[in-house]
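Re-run with default settings, no changes from the original entry. Doing this only to confirm the output is reproducible before filing.
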Amino acid sequence: MTSSIRSTALEPDAALDGDAPTLAQRLGRAVPVYGLVGLTVALALLFALLLPDTFPTLFNLRAILSDKSVIALLALAATIPMITGKIDLTVGYGIVLWHILAISLQTRYGLPWPAAVLVVLAGAAAFGVLNGLLVERVQIDSFIATLGTGTVLYAVAMWHSGGRQVVGELPEAFVALAGGELLGLPIGAFYVLAVALALWLVTEFTPTGRALYVIGANPKAAELNGISVRKHVLGAFVASGLLSGFAGVLLASRLQIGQASVGLEFLLPALVGAFLGSTTIRPGRVNVWGTLVGVAILAIGISGIQQFGGAFYVEPLFNGLTLLVSIGIAGWAQQRRNLSIKRRIAARQLADAGPAATPAH
């Protein structure tokens, strides 16, 4: 069984963490859970104070929600396989092909837009099946498998587009998929909210969600408990593929132009958002709301820095450094927690052995 990450690698164990009787200890426990949320709010307030004329405006909020909705969907797509301990890189590579295909099927081949959307979603799901089979059936590590299939998808996108822009007249109904508004906000934000709610309900309150987390923590234990690891991992990759295909459709609707140079830049922030999400809300456990918090802090940070006049390379630099820092802090916190647990276990064993070692009188 191959595994790239553990979905519960840092998840606290109440049986070993002990009580937190003091305020300082309770705050120490709360910081990993809500620290990133607080940092997100603090960062927004800081930029609002420093950039009062541009940052705390409805225009800026709408721009952030519109620009980052696709990345948020891709981050949620990446979250699903991560729960099982796998990584799906095709969320970033696939969107290159899916958004080109959503346009070319309409402009070159004359398909109605609903049919074009269905073809894209079917293709994305098919590649999800392929990824799942390579990982579970062929036993290729998920990073390597999805890097290979993702590269193939990118090559197909370049071949299909000929390296040129794919343009043409698109139906207004298709353009409205991502161009519409609801309650004065971009409709893409509501797609993200709806998907997040659905994933949260499935992962936290259904047997399927519990099975995914068990597989991510210990696949062998999952098998011993009668959980079909192959079926659930395959389903996770299919769901990830479908969601990335939907993100590609929205990107095509928003840009109205297909080009192979667009899409790959979404891969890193999507993965960073998902990884950041595992350090908050439920620290050490990949979770839906944590992923959205991770995407939010990236969006706020990059927007503020760019409004300060940051150069074009600021966004990838910020994404990369944020990923390294977040994973480093999480690893350091886990090491300290493990050391504390070992000390507590040793103290408990000494306490239990004390009365037994005392000779009877």
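The CA atoms of residues 13 and 341 lie 10 Å apart. The chain has one domain: 14-349.
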